[in-house]
Design a protein that fits this description.
By secondary structure, the chain is of the alpha/beta class. Helix content is 27%, strand content 29%.
Length: 154
């Protein structure tokens, strides 16, 4: 697992969103894009993380930042997550984890003594020119949005 770092060019992609419409990085030209990878919709940690971003949406939009949540969930699961949590940003389905692979966030994980492959909870801030500005990899799900906003406002 080789995680992309600040200064790297962000991988181009085209993935289905919660409405099964293709979304590409190029759709956000001229904006900053916050791509956050999360393991599974409607699980406790992922819900807390999404709620924080939802509640920060006004501040993020004022800073010209679009939020994209990416998980290996099937498209049909994403609208349920959005509706249940009143999410106000786009979720993308990366079922084959091709985007997670491209960013270097798919790899070996350990939980309760078991090893398996999955998404590592890492967030990338991509600038208006398609380069990674910052990699957020040290945060708790409950303060993820605060860490992102503190960086953007500094």
């Amino acid at each position: 697992m080789q995680i992309l770092k600040a200064g790297d060019v962000a991988p181009q992609f085209s993935l289905p969103n919660q409405d099964n419409q293709k979304i590409s990085l190029g759709d956000f030209a001229g904006k900053k894009v916050l791509i956050y990878f999360y393991p599974k919709a409607m699980t406790p940690g992922c819900t807390i993380q999404a709620q924080g971003l939802r509640d920060s949406q006004t501040s993020l939009a004022a800073l010209n930042v679009e939020v994209l949540g990416v998980s290996p969930d099937a498209v049909k699961r994403l609208p349920k997550f959005i509706e249940k949590e009143s999410l106000n940003f786009t979720l993308l389905s990366d079922e084959d984890h091709s985007l997670a692979d491209a960013f270097g966030v798919w790899g070996l994980k350990k939980f309760m003594g078991k090893e398996y492959d999955g998404i590592h909870r890492i967030t990338f801030l991509i600038n208006e020119y398609g380069h990674i500005d910052y990699v957020f990899d040290k945060f708790k799900t409950k303060n993820h949005h605060e860490v992102v906003l503190a960086y953007l406002q500094s």
